[in-house]
Each structure stands twice: as structure tokens, then as C-alpha cells.
């Protein structure tokens, strides 16, 4: 029994006095703290997912993302196929010609789009997303179709059944009567039910069609101009598909944090200014990998859409998630500071005290998330960081019994959190800044640790 107590006493003394034991203990506690840190990351993802759900709900009620595809000329024509028929009574075989109707879809020669978009922020509880009211005018012309490309005889064209069709997402967001002026007449566009295919995360396009065009409005013997205006409520982004042989787009908006996306970018300089943005595109037929005519059905061309995303300037959940990725480094560096102080000053710090310090560091991230939901990221970071620094500095004063050490701890934490904040704000220079900072920290630790006698186990 006495021998067992002596062994326990030796082991406890080794834990208290051995540098190796302290290193193992600190390393073990860091690994343990990765568990609550992973819970924090899950919390960030859960809150971010909740925000996305709210944004989708707002978009569903207000109006979804807008994609415009068209207008397109739909020209029916007769096709013929041979069918072999067996007469039952005589068993003789003969060939029967069956007439069917196919469709040729012709894109316009010129398509000019002018869009004025007025976005605003919509709130739902503590969450917000961008929505907008837009007024978009489309004009251009159709040239006389070239049927030789598709080997269609002009005598088979059903000119009396020609229509205008166009596709668009967010049909429910249209707030005016959709009309198109073709030649000298104006036609109402009405919905045509088409079973839309699902193209992953891209919105489905609904089809609008005009009544049969009057003969004089059909580009049969001469080019025909068209024009229309659409007032649409939408959310998040607006885009167009360049169906014109020459497509020009001019879009203006007071929104200053626009993000241009898609296969084509604006060509004008100074598109973003202090009053919003003024973006202009010009796409030629040769710039895109599809032709001016298609047979029987319009293809999926959403891949070639381009436009503007009216993004919210700051996504605090993304910044919080990026900050949490440095949690392991923050805990490790803080424990390293306490370890060096303990080793050099021979002040005893209990594992429980290390654990309390580690939990305070983890609490920083929960404070950051909860405060940033009601304020901006900078204020949340400042409040959460200051709270944790004051808590740990005050706690270290009671542990280390030295104002100098406590002040050193406070300055170290200020430096660490400032360093992390700078990295979070940077994008292009985050890697080089982080690498340089860690190199400097390593050099300082190497310089301080040279005074430690690593050969002795009774420090």
C-alpha cells in the first residue's frame, strides 16, 4: 500500500515537474478541445443553412431569379415520311405518305436589351436577402429565314401559323401584361404548358407564346422589327441568353456591390461607380457556340447566360466559418504562451486551468456567431474578442500571480486575434500574410525556448 502511494506520488511529481509531461498534457488538451470546436463549426453551417432557407422562402414569395431567353420565331413546316402498309384482305404491301408538322426555331438578327434594376434588401427576422424591381425593354429584328440550311422547301412552310415564343424563369414575377409588337401589330404573350426538364440547380424556364402572327408581320419577304417591355420582380440575380446574331445589353442600377457572372462579361470601363453600376455587353454570333436555327425544340442554353448577381456585401457566416478554421491555431498558440511562461517561471498551472482557458477560446466563436446575426462582423469580432481577452487575462492574473505575465498574455491574445482578423479580411494576400505571420511567431518561440533546459526532466 505504501509502495503504491509512493509510486502515485512519484507520478504526480513527474506530471508537475517534467517538461515532457506538460507537453503531453497540453497536446492532449488541445486535441480534446477540437471536439467542442467541431460543434461550433456545425453550428455555423446550421445557421448558414437556415439563412439560405429563409432567402429561398423570400425569393419564393417575392419572385425568383430572372433568366430571359428570346424572343424566338416559331415557324411550322410540313414534313413527309413513308410508311409501309399491308392490306389485310389481299396481303399486298404498299407505301403510304404521311404528312406531319415540324417546327423551325429562328433567333433574331439583332437583339437589344435595356434594363433598369432597382434592388433592395428584404428582411425576414434577422436574415436578409436582395430583391429587385426591374423594367426591361427588348427590341430588334428578324431577317428572312434561310431554309436551305435545314434543307426545308419553302413551299412546305406554313406561314399562316407562325408565332413568337420566348422562355423565362420567374414568370410569376411579371407585373405587367406581357406584349410584343411585331411589325405593325401588338400581340399578347400567354403561357404555354411545357413539361420543363430539371437542369440541376438552375431554374426551370417557362414558355410564353403569341397568337398566330398576321401575314404582314411575318418576315416572309422583308425583315420585321419587334419590341416589348417586361416589368419583373425578382431576387438575387438577373441574366440573359444571347440569342441575337448580335446581342447588346445595357443594364443600370443603383446597387454598388454587383457581381457580374456568366460566359460573357461587360466590355465597358468604369461600369461600377459611386451611384451604382452601368454595364454594357455586346455578343456576336461568332462569340457563342450555337447557331441561329434549331429544329423541333429549343435547346437548353442556360449555360450561356450572363448577367448580374445583386449580392449582399457581407456574408458574416462565411467569415465566421473562415475564422473558426483558425481555431486550432489560436488554441495552440495560446497554450504555447502559457506553457512557455510555466516552464520558464516554474509556476504550476493545473490541467483544469488549461481546460478552462481553452473553453474560453472556444466560446469566442459562439459569441461571434450570435452577435454577428444582430450586428456587423467587425463589431461582433471586436466584442467577442475583447470579452475573451479580458476573461483570460483576468483568469491568468489569479493563476500566475503576476501582472507582468498577465499583461503579456493579454498582448499575446490581442496580437493573435488581430492577426486572424487581418487574414480574414484579405483574399489575394491571405496566404502570404498568414505564412509570414506564422514564420515570425515560430522565430519568436524558437528565440524564447532556447533558454529552456530540455535535458532536465525536473524543471
Automatic annotation (TrEMBL):
> What's in the keyword line of the UniProt record?
Membrane, Transmembrane, Transmembrane helix
Family annotation (Pfam families): CreD (PF06123)
Q: Where are the transmembrane segments?
A: 21-40, 326-345, 352-371, 377-397, 404-424, 430-449
The cross-references to InterPro entries, in alphabetical order and at most eight, read:
Uncharacterised_IM_CreD
Q: What's any one GO cellular component for it?
A: plasma membrane
Instruction: Name it.
Output: Inner membrane protein
Amino acid at each position: 500500500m505504501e509502495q503504491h502511494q509512493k509510486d502515485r506520488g512519484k507520478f504526480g511529481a513527474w506530471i508537475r515537474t517534467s517538461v515532457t509531461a506538460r507537453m503531453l498534457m497540453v497536446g492532449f488538451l488541445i486535441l480534446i478541445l477540437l471536439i467542442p470546436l467541431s460543434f461550433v463549426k456545425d453550428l455555423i453551417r446550421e445557421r448558414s443553412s437556415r439563412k439560405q432557407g429563409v432567402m429561398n422562402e423570400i425569393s419564393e414569395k417575392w419572385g425568383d431569379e430572372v433568366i430571359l431567353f428570346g424572343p424566338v420565331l416559331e415557324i411550322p413546316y410540313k414534313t413527309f415520311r413513308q410508311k409501309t402498309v399491308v392490306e389485310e384482305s389481299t396481303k399486298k404491301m404498299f407505301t403510304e405518305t404521311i404528312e406531319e408538322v415540324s417546327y423551325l426555331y429562328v433567333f433574331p438578327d439583332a437583339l437589344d436589351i435595356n434594363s433598369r434594376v432597382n434592388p433592395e434588401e428584404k428582411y425576414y427576422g434577422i436574415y436578409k436577402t436582395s430583391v429587385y424591381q426591374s423594367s426591361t425593354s427588348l427590341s430588334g429584328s428578324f431577317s428572312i429565314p434561310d431554309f436551305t440550311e435545314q434543307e426545308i422547301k419553302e413551299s412546305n412552310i406554313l406561314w399562316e401559323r407562325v408565332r413568337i415564343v420566348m422562355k423565362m424563369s420567374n414568370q410569376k414575377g411579371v407585373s405587367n401584361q406581357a406584349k410584343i409588337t411585331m411589325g405593325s401589330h401588338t400581340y399578347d404573350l400567354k403561357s404555354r404548358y411545357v413539361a420543363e426538364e430539371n437542369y440541376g440547380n438552375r431554374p426551370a424556364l417557362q414558355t410564353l407564346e403569341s397568337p398566330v402572327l398576321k401575314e404582314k408581320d411575318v418576315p416572309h419577304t422583308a425583315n420585321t422589327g419587334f419590341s416589348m417591355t417586361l416589368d419583373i420582380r425578382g431576387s438575387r440575380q438577373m441574366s440573359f441568353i444571347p440569342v441575337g446574331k448580335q446581342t447588346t445589353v445595357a443594364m443600370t442600377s443603383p446597387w454598388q456591390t454587383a457581381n457580374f457572372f456568366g460566359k460573357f462579361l461587360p466590355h465597358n470601363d468604369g461600369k461600377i461607380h459611386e451611384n451604382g453600376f452601368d454595364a454594357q455587353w455586346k455578343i456576336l454570333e461568332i462569340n457563342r457556340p450555337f447557331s441561329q436555327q434549331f429544329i423541333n425544340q429549343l435547346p437548353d442554353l442556360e449555360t450561356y447566360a450572363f448577367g448580374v448577381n445583386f449580392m449582399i456585401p457581407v456574408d458574416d457566416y462565411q467569415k465566421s466559418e473562415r475564422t473558426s478554421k483558425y481555431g486550432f491555431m489560436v488554441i495552440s498558440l495560446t497554450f504555447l504562451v502559457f506553457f512557455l511562461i510555466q516552464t520558464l517561471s516554474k509556476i504550476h498551472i493545473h490541467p483544469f486551468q488549461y481546460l478552462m482557458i481553452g473553453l474560453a477560446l472556444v466560446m469566442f466563436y459562439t459569441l461571434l456567431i450570435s452577435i454577428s446575426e444582430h450586428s456587423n462582423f467587425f463589431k461582433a469580432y471586436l466584442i467577442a474578442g475583447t470579452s475573451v481577452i479580458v476573461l483570460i487575462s483576468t483568469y491568468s492574473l489569479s493563476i500566475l500571480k503576476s501582472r507582468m505575465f498577465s499583461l503579456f498574455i493579454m498582448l499575446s491574445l490581442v496580437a493573435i486575434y488581430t492577426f486572424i482578423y487581418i487574414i480574414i479580411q484579405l483574399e489575394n494576400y491571405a496566404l502570404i500574410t498568414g505564412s509570414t505571420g506564422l514564420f515570425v511567431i515560430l522565430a519568436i518561440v524558437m528565440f524564447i525556448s532556447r533558454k529552456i533546459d530540455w535535458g532536465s526532466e525536473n524543471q
